[in-house]
Write a structure and sequence with these properties.
The protein has 3 helices and no strands. It is mainly α and about 100 residues long. Helix 2 runs antiparallel to helix 3.
Amino acid sequence: MATQRTSFTKLQRDRAKKAKAAAKRERRLERSAEARTASDDTGVETGVEESHEGPISAAELLHEIEVTHQRFEAKLMSYEEFEEKKAELLARLPID
């Protein structure tokens, strides 16, 4: 028996999904770039601290986790980015 080939409509759907995902990714990158330039222009931090250097208190880390949650709820970051950032911040929490 011969295997059934993929139909043309399925190929079109797959291409449309890929194009939509690429457009979404591009919009997300543009928004994050605009947010960075806006924070640089105003001098106000809009995001979570990106530095991994130096000690940071548990209260500050919890605040950064809260800000990360707010950014995710405002749809400023994807679920994957949210989970990655949250895991990174939780790993930095000091355990006594």
